[in-house]
Amino acid sequence: MTNNNLVELRSFFAGKKYYVRTYGCQLNENDSEKISGILDEQGMTNTDNINAASVIVFNTCTIRENANDKIFGNLGIVKGIKRKSPDVIVILCGCMMKEEHNVTKVKSKYKFVDLIFGPSDIYKLPALLFNRMNEGGLICGIGDEDLIIEDLPVTHKKKFRALSTIIYGCNNFCSYCIVPYVRGRERSRAPEDVLKELKMLGDQGFKEVMLLGQNVNSYGKDFDSYDFADLLSDASKIDAISRIRFMTSHPKDTDRKLLDVMANGGNIMPHLHLPMQSGSDRVLALMNRKYSAGQYLDIVEYARKVIPDISITTDIIVGFPGEKEEDFSETLSLMERIRFDNAFTFMFSPRKGTPAADMDDQIPDDVMRERFSRLVKLQNKCTLESGMKTLNTVQTVLVEGLSQNSDKVYAGRTPHNRLVNFTCDKAIEEGDIVDVDITSVKTFSLNGRFLSFNSGNGG
Ligand code: SF4
């Protein structure tokens, strides 16, 4: 793009509004923040009103079959808008655009879409918009090279919490997951670039940073001698950031070095989200998860040894093809033993394009539902048990704003990532770190009352 092109682009878009709808995970949210940053740089402003936008962006997810159906369904609204305002530019991006059959469907059935690109092509947006301004028809920016582009403009959605993707892609090929086919191979950002960004975020006043990756703790595997534990240790030296979190870890890369760094505490929050998926070695092998239930338990026990009050949450899939009642019982007994602080629980849904979708012994829905309800019942008991440990204690809370249900109640999270709803008679705002007296406990949240501002690091 020449400077003249950039000037022409800005004069065309300046003052106009854009609308971004994000589907899926936090990595997609961070990608949408980069898309917003690029559009802001063109002199545009964000709007939550899709009808007021000159540029409409759907940043798609393809993790489950029905995600695609939902997005194509939502596109119906946009077709109506485009009919009324033909100059509106419609953009489809994200993981769905990395699947040939979806691109073919857009080209044949959704001709009102102007621009498509994949998760690794965001940096091309100014050039693609410029081409759209000067050419008709669908502009396709989908590339097959998985580059790491630094210093893209970013408009963070929250002013107190910043997302930072530090590693892209996944090499694990869990048999039920489409991510490696749409987000490419693992590639880590250079440590100096990540640390430079974290320092900048701290200086800009962000209290919390969430380090992101499909497998965040695989970070650095493409370097000689610098891994995720090293990065976390260096990041913990950035005092301007009160809270550092990371998501999503893979058990095969969760070593004692990492847990020892977490045990140093400081601004590293005592919360580890570690997807277990199943408690049966036979099912873990069918899932191609590359660890055993015993190895998983070793990690949890070591983590609790070096960080006694650590919060451990997980993901569990019920009804994986071939899962027998005894396999499921192993999952329940491992949960009984570990007593997770919380868990995201899923019923298996076959994802076209993954090995698991074509596996024999698909579990009938009624069997899957019955197992799912037993699993959720057990986990809810453990989650409530975990919350009860905080009753009549003082918790340090990073304020996220007013709670969803009331304009008199604030919401925020503890270092262990527990949601707290609390009353407060003082003027507080999002990003403040306060002490809250926990007065009652619900399964998925705590209730309390404001005590005082916390001048500490919020840990
Ligand atoms: S680790 Fe497995 S589940 Fe996670 S993104 Fe990679 S393939 Fe998917």
Topology:
Elements: H1 3-13, E1 17-22, H2 26-41, E2 45-46, E3 55-60, H3 65-84, E4 89-94, H4 100-109, E5 115-117, H5 125-134, E6 139-140, E7 161-165, E8 167-168, H6 179-183, E9 187-188, H7 191-203, E10 208-212, H8 228-235, E11 243-247, H9 256-263, E12 271-273, H10 281-286, H11 293-306, E13 311-318, H12 325-338, E14 342-347, H13 365-388, E15 394-402, E16 409-413, E17 419-423, E18 433-441, E19 446-453
Parallel strand pairs: 1-2, 1-3, 3-4, 4-5, 5-6, 7-10, 10-11, 12-13, 13-14, 17-19
Antiparallel strand pairs: 8-9, 15-16, 15-18, 16-17, 18-19
Helix pairs in contact: 1-5, 8-9, 9-11, 12-13
Iron/sulfur cluster is lined by residues 170, 172-174, 177, 179-180, 214-215, 250.
Fourth-level CATH superfamily of the largest domain: tm_1862 like domain
Determine the structural class based on helices, strands and strand pairing: alpha/beta
Task: Output the CATH class name of the largest domain.
Answer: Alpha Beta
Number of domains: 3
CATH topology of the largest domain: pyruvate-formate lyase- activating enzyme
Overall spatial form: globular
What strand order characterises the main sheet? 2-1-3-4-5-6
Q: Ranges with pLDDT <50 over ≥5 residues?
A: none
